[in-house]
Design brief:
Layout (H helix, E strand, L loop, with lengths): L19 E4 L4 H12 L4 E4 L6 H7 L3 E3 L12 E4 L8 H9 L2 E4 H9 L3 E6 L4 H14 L5 E3 L11 E2 L5 E5 L14 E4 L7 H4 L2 H13 L6 E5 L3 H12 L4 E5 L6 E9 L2 E8 L2 E8 L4 H16 L4 H9 L9 E6 L2 E6 L4 H15 L4 E6 L3 H6 L1 H8 L4 E4 L15 H7 L7 E3 L6 H8 L5 E6 L7 H18 L1
Amino acid sequence: MKEMHSLIDDGVTAEDLGRVHLIGVGGVGMSGLARLLLTRGVPTSGSELREWPSLAGLRALGGTIHMSHVPENLDDVDTVVYSTAIPDDHLEMVEARRRGLRLLHRSEALAAAMTGRRTIAVAGTHGKTTTTSMSTLVLQHCGQDPSFFIGGESSETGSNGHHGSGQYFVAEADESDRSFLRYRPFVSIITNVDADHLNTYGDLDGLTEGFMDFARCTTPDGFVVTCADDSRCRELAGRLVAEGRTVYTYGLAEDAHLRIAEIASGSSGVRYFAWLDGRPLGEISVPTPGHHMALNSAAGVLTALRLGLPEECVVEALAGFPGVRRRFELKGIAAGVRVYDEYAYHPTSMDAAIRTLRGVAGDGRLIVVFQPYRVYRTRDFETEIAAALALADQAIVMEVFGPGEVREPGEGGASLTHAVGLPAADKVFVPSWQDVPAEVALRAREGDVVVTMGAPPIALMGDELLTALAESAAAEEKSD
């Protein structure tokens, strides 16, 4: 497959877009792009229907936020940006075409912002956001001041987009709709290749070819970084090397350029020993637990060292990694119950996250509140998602979040709940959002861990769960 045409190829910059308007600006990807444009000085507006947490920050940066979708939002606008989630018949899309405005997919606008920078693009079925965040932190800590676009927010800064003064631009590259083929990276990172987005690629082989096309977008003077432990990535690496491309690998495999070993994960984080080209680097620690976190950090370490950054600086940066919102994020503690939020919705990511949280729960129970993300994924991976949920002590399953999708009879949350291999008393389908906090308060007891997991909206539920737990405990005390 040929590369998608990119505005980078035409030398178009963010400033060339004029006044930019983003439809659905509250989502994490669109808000990151808006933040990037605003910190770059590009006049930016956006429209939304709900007050997402990111909007206050965009207003503080000078962004104009319209809490409605109306034609007047496009007055004095030069470029309108949309995401794959926005349908062609959306009111503002129709109006933009009627007015003859420049209409760009989010990835095209992001590509314009990359023009003139050395881009580090992070792709993969799992771990993109964390790896992008870690790579950004390392570059920042080592004085590079990179620009960045992340599909999540740093727990420390709350930022998912920024225009920096340095030569590097770190970006999360989305494979779901092939839009990552619009970038021309100096470094392409592929964390893993697992079955997902088969509605776009047809099958796993088609998805693998999509990642191969992405790697081929790497500039001739750049390099590809990928995981030696992932079979599909190993296949890609071999093919790329045969084409004369520079590829570096990381992982537990003996032949990895950056080899890691003795991974130890606990509630305080993960640590491991590393060797670069056979030379020991010593112990590396990250204050976020999980075997997968070790691999994500290894990708960042290898990239930074191949860029020539000092070893001591790289290791020190990771030791202070603040984490990423919606990735093992502690929302609070109420009535002795810890409430976390976790973005995982693909079965492989869910399995890793739930196993990590089981370790954190210790003698307590793990209760997972899961909102499935996308009808097609829930249908196609129902058995695998159910198996991951069965690793918890209890599972509360909500209805599928799938904007624009049609759910056929027999598909969705009820079917998934039935497939979960837990006793009937330990699993329940709760389709109504407002009924979930009470269900959690009924089931949870002191020492338990509750995690909200899955589609983006469920990230907003943590505070409601904490309130319900606190009120339930207070009511019990009063009755005693």
